[in-house]
């Protein structure tokens, strides 16, 4: 026999479950205008240097906008050349790097701007004698997200 207590417990459990699902399905909040202080960005050490995550999230016009800053130790690469649906801009802050583009490596220095088009192989490596630091900006539009699926 089902009691009033059983019904109450079942209703509470269903309500909690629906609440959890609703919260999980909430879209991430849209990035707002702000400033990011270099000194306040946490540094995460990696096997090849360090990375600072600046931001990552949706904007009013993009599914995702992401920026991080990588520091590569001399003679190292962040990873092998790769490709992905999203597009990417890299701005070299300091050091000498080589950028893999169109099947060859191109040497560039501070102030250089590098662009990786959707699904085209690209990569970066530090060919200097000092650490190389560069800013990476990635964006994912609805079209790029659909290409992933």
Morphology call: elongated
Helix content: 10-25%
Largest sheet: 6 strands, antiparallel
The CATH homology group name: Jelly Rolls
Whole-number count of domains: 1
Count of distinct strands: 9
Low-confidence stretches: none
Question: What order do the helices and strands follow?
Answer: HEEEEEEEEEH
Distance between the termini: 49 Å
**Main β-sheet, spatial strand arrangement:** 1-2-3-9-4-7
Global mean pLDDT: 87
Quickly name the level 1 CATH class. Mainly Beta
CATH architecture group name = Sandwich
- What is the alpha-carbon Rg in Å? 22 Å
In CATH, the topology is named: Jelly Rolls
Percent strand equals: 35-45%
Oligomer: single chain
- Counting DSSP H or I runs of 4 or more residues, the number of helices is 2
Structural class: alpha+beta
Give a quick rundown of the structure.
The chain is of the alpha+beta class and 149 residues long. Helices cover 19% and strands 37% of the residues.
Report on the structure:
With 149 residues, the chain is of the alpha+beta class. It has one domain (38-148): Jelly Rolls (Sandwich). It is 19% helix and 37% strand. The protein contains two helices and nine strands. It has helices spanning 4-24, 142-148, and strands spanning 44-45, 49-57, 64-72, 87-94, 97-101, 104-108, 113-116, 123-126, 132-140. It is elongated and about 75 Å long. The model has no long low-confidence stretch (mean pLDDT 87).
């Amino acid at each position: 026999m089902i009691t009033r207590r059983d019904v109450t417990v079942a209703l509470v459990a269903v309500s909690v479950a629906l609440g959890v699902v609703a919260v999980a399905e909430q879209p991430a909040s849209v990035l707002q205008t702000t400033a990011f202080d270099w000194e306040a960005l946490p540094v995460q050490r990696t096997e090849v240097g360090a990375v600072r995550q600046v931001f990552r999230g949706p904007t009013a016009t993009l599914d995702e906008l992401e920026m991080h800053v990588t520091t590569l130790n001399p003679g190292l690469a962040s990873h092998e050349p790769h490709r992905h649906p999203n597009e990417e801009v890299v701005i070299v802050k300091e050091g000498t790097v080589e950028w893999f583009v169109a099947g060859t490596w191109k040497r560039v220095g501070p102030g250089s701007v590098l662009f990786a088009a959707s699904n085209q192989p690209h990569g970066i490596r530090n060919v200097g004698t000092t650490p190389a630091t560069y800013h990476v900006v990635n964006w994912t539009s609805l079209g790029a997200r659909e290409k992933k699926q």
